[in-house]
Design goal:
The structure holds two protein chains of two kinds. Chain A is an all-alpha fold. Chain A has four helices and no strands. Helices cover 75% and strands 0% of the residues of chain A. In chain B, helix 12 runs antiparallel to helix 13. Classes of the chains: A mainly alpha, B mainly alpha.
Amino acid sequence: MIASHYAYWALFTIMMIGLYVVISHGNLVKKMIGLSVFQVGVLLFFISLGKVAGGSAPIISDDVEVYSHPLPHVLILTAIVVGVATLAVGLALSVRIFEIYGTIEEDEVIQRSAEEADDQFAWRQADGPDGGAA
Amino acid sequence: MSTEFTIINVTLLAILIATALAITRLRALYEATMLAALFSLVTASLFVLLDAVDVAFTEAAVGVGVSTVLVLTVLALTRSREATTPRSRRVPGLIAVLLAGGTLVYAGQDLPAFGDPGTPVQVHPITEVYLVGSQQDIGIPNVVTSVLASYRGLDTLGELVVVFAACVAVVSLLGPLTDPEANRPRADFHLADYLVIRTVSGVLMPFILLFALYVLFHGEYGPGGGFQAGVIFASGFVLYGLVFGLDQAQRAVPGRALWFVIAAGLLLYIGVGLATILLGGAFLDYDMLSPDHPESGQHQGILLVETGIGVTVAAVMVAIFFRFASRGISR
């Protein structure tokens, strides 16, 4: 079981390391890096399912008899490109969060956002229910 | 599996696991990003070992090139040091990971052996269609390109729309492409002050762009295609922007031109689909482009579609880089 499936266990390990970084670390940029580690583990796992022992790349040529399966390659190509697209959007969001809250640590962002909401609430209370017009 | 294959495979996987662990422990984020670039590079090598040469090409261009540049730019805009994770955050993460990992291992025991030629993936009839039928229907050696652009062309259109949507999102978040003060020359420190960097970049740029065009047009005969070509083309302009300054780069590629080009590639792809409908076939049925010779119709369709992909991806990557970089300068 170990010898025939060793690649799968190693790839599951990589996936789990990436997942741990996404869940536990609070820094938003570190989360994005962890997410791409997780993603790479998934991509490698998918491609390893299409690999045939003694096969070759799916480029038709006369000297080759066995080809590895092309369909996982196509799907993973799409996945890589979509992955970098989401990375770009995630990083843009991190930049905007930093500009507004001054930090990209998730706990501090939540804390400052809660303080801001408290301040606004207290301010509105002081004005009175009609917004201080009277 | 031959012993050499197993040895190389185990070595590369071990490097990957060690790098992933190091990325987790590092709190200095610049260093973590560099390790992530190394991670992507070793992954690309592993893809080659697993016979996925197109995927390796894309991972090397996208994972090592574009991702690293974007993360480094963001780190320059924000903090580059991570706070220590408190213990209260680590424990739930560990529990979740152990549960998920345990489930994967338990389910993984039913997986076929690694490299087994008798798996459902290999013996499914679609394999014959792709490997043998594509030679009769389309006739290009790179089966991955024929599957990507022709058999599953609709998926690829969706992928291109996702890339376009990501560009729209980044531009909405980080400011307009036609920024009026973008072309103001800045008295920044430029890498162009160094003779070697300036000369080598100047010499390299035409070759980078030419190589991108080569990858685009030879995607049918070897590894390559629209996405890889687009990313390599964009990296030429990223190099120019990094060395000679963002204002020079934005003068070379004005925002209005980028707006047009980003949409033009996607419209070309959709246009090919609509043209085949108007010619009497289904959406993206390239046989209709040349009814007497369906094979050459497929060739034309694939070429047009790959060009559209390359054009949009290149423009999107350049636009995203410009937005991130000028955000830093305007503060």
